[in-house]
Fold these 3 entries.
Entry 1:
Amino acid sequence: MYFNNAKDIAKNARHQVLIEKMSPILQSEVQDRNGSWIKKLGIFNGQKLSREFVVGMCNLLHGTVYEPSEKIAWDDQLFCVSRGVASQKGKIRTAGTFWGEDFILECEAMKEKYMGHAMTFVEILVITRTDFFLLLDDGFTNEATMVRKSVVKMAVNRGVMAAAKLIRDKRALEETGSYPLKSIGIKDLTESLSAQKMDDEIHHCHVKPGEQMRRLIHEQSRKMTKFGAKLE
């Protein structure tokens, strides 16, 4: 069974070589089915993507086959199930589903580093963070703007969730006299939510944010940092 799947991977690689020789329009038509999941990524906010960008992402994907019960190690990249069934973060992942969208964040403390597990022989397609941002930097300003907005939204949401966890942990300390072992530190939270960190996040999207957006980011960062200081 493993060798049958490996044979399919090799066959797909040969097809990819042929696709790369086609014109952008023909490539987009051929890659439309394979890249349909890309259009569903939340980091693009449901907006329309250019054909060239979808083709570019498809060309950067590479696949790996895992056998049943094998671990799919976390890495700083986007994962998509091409075929088979996997599980990740307590969810069943079938063909066309994905995880790891927080690879767009620069701050490691804000990322959910859950590994996956193969439930059947499964082929996983991935694109690395480096390749993704190099693609965005190759003239895809509209897509880069979408990602930049998602970075800000995701960073703020993760910060709020971390702050809520701090409140729960603080109450647990008051009630039991001990913190949960995996409690996030106040220092880590305030550093992650600093204005400088937010600037670093959007800087890596290669798009300069508007002044209004920058003021909003800094204001939210100051509020969260002040909140964290009160808990110390």
Entry 2:
Amino acid sequence: MDEEEIEKAVVAYLKKKGFKQTELAFQEEQQLNKNTNSQLDPDITKKILSFSEFETGPERYQEEYSKLRSWAYSSLDLYKHELLRVLYPVFIHCFMELVARGHIQEARAFFDSYREDHEMMHLRDLQKLEGVLSPSHLKEMEFAHSIRLSKVNIKMCQYSYDLLLQYLHKTESITMLGIINERINFQVSPGQPGSISDDAEVVTLVGSGPDASLLNQKEIHWGVRKRSYQ
């Protein structure tokens, strides 16, 4: 996702929500960067996430993911299977972001609401991650820690990628935009979408090295998951 697209999304979001002073400061900073041929702030995605967190808190993850999910499932059949590939890594990182911010009840409710969507292809990952019950587990659990340090690789055709960008900008899904930009590495190819039979291989949560392979084979448990969040 290029810098200009991110900048437009952030400015549109700030303007819509009435953060006038923040909008002006952001635009001044970006103009200065352009005048000095500087690159966009490397922490821009963290700024995006902080803007959305400031406004509504944890419920924004639920709202934006639900809308993204509905949009992907209602997309044209030709491109649907590629767009659906985005949902699993976004789901995982929404869950872990909520945990990292201390919203444990909201994280568990979010996880339980959508885990069924992903059980067929990612059951072992989900069984590991359902044991994440506190921010400390994100560091102590090797599998979760590795995911948060890596970018997800997703293959899709150019048109599917363009559709995704258009959706994110049109709906001003600033939280999803931040997660996708920070956590996903798109491998975009020209031409028609790839085969749906390739889906098991085109989404990789961790890298392809030997350490990642071992991580995917490990069974890590943090005790029985609590059913009550009281």
Entry 3:
Amino acid sequence: MKAKQMFNPYLAATLAILTYIYWPDTAGFWQSPERQQLSQQDLVRQARSLRIAPPEINDRQRQLAQLGQRLFFDHRFSADGSVSCSSCHKPELDFTDGLKTAAGMGTTDRNTPTLINAYLLEWFFWDGRAHSLETQAKGPIEARLEHGSNRGQVAQTIALHYKESYEALFDPISVELEHLLKSPRFHASPNPKAKTNMSQRLASYGVATLSDFSLQTEFIQAAADQKMSPYAWFSQTMLHSESPPSDWIAAYQGLSPNLQKELDQIFLNFARAVAAYQRTIYAVNSPFDQFLAKLGDQKQAPQGFHSSFGEEQWQGFKVFAESGCINCHNGPLLSDQQFHNIGLPSHAKLDIGRARGLLLAQTSPVPCEAIEPQDREACMELRYADLENFEVMGAFKTPTLRNLAKTKPYMHDGRFDSIDQVLDHYEDHDQEPAIGHRSESIPRFQWSDEERQQLKLFLESLQSEWNILQVSRQETNKKSAG
């Protein structure tokens, strides 16, 4: 038989007295100077985690960068000689263009990201379809709305105008290919892999995750007008980029396997030189960086701060950290370099983001490991990523917050013209994303007017003059003006 439990008043009284003596008052404990000191130390630790260092390059990379700088500003690599890399990445605008969406041979659907501190990036383009700067540098050349060119024209321009500089760094151009490149206009481009099966799977999933009923209705009506299924219409409008002209494909296919391989190699070497130049562009001396340098190994924020980073900016960082902005905007670039659906509603054009990037990467005519074999881990992530994972639908790469003041407009489609508009979006808890589901990692923000002002002051303190390792700012600005 179970013994009856009895209340012992003497034991209860003893426990109450011991608790009173040895257990600190809860409210007093959490508001004590010791607790505030621990909070300051945690803030300082988080601030210190955002430190950034300039790039380091060897002599070979420096030589590549010197060639790459010339290629970067050369308009002859575009279809009609009107577009260079610097057309969208203007040095005077911190290597952006100030437009909502980039404009080359035509107008694209995406905003131009800055190239400053690109040496620290892990993924490239808003959808992360490139895993290296080399892959990124190739993309715009053969994109119809950007340079609108092809690898044949790239090889021809190099052979005619950069042969000596090119062959000082890479294998010489073969006599056979050089003979072909002397023709008036040599255009050659491989045909992209068919995307049919993969894109149809992704299309069926994409239509199902359209969260806006009016968009579903719009797609169904548009498909009916074209006598297509909603899935086929989604696939055509969201996923397929135009193939190169048939005569470019025919010219490429008419080359021997060895000449195709050599042409591809010249195109890759072009990208390696441009990428080497892009790796030399950095900005690491913002008021916030100067504050971090003064902070050193101290456990508390220094008294007096810096002339451009004072108490208000520090309070802004506190708001930034404690409200959860730092969950995604962390590390040296203030970006976790991951992909999130931040709940942007329908705007100018529906964009499925990371889902499209993965499709393009997985159907690229050149396997990513053939470009930069050392980046195998990132390459494998691209190759085997699940296209039907709802988290990639409508997700975009977390942008860097460095040099934010001079790189507006903001978001992947340039929809916001000011930091205030960005903050307004994050405080609007009723918005639903046009497609997919809002990432659970995005906090529900709510700031007071004072906190918003302090947060903006902190974000503005991330602005820094850019530098280039191997050439002066004056040379780069001169090339841009020319």
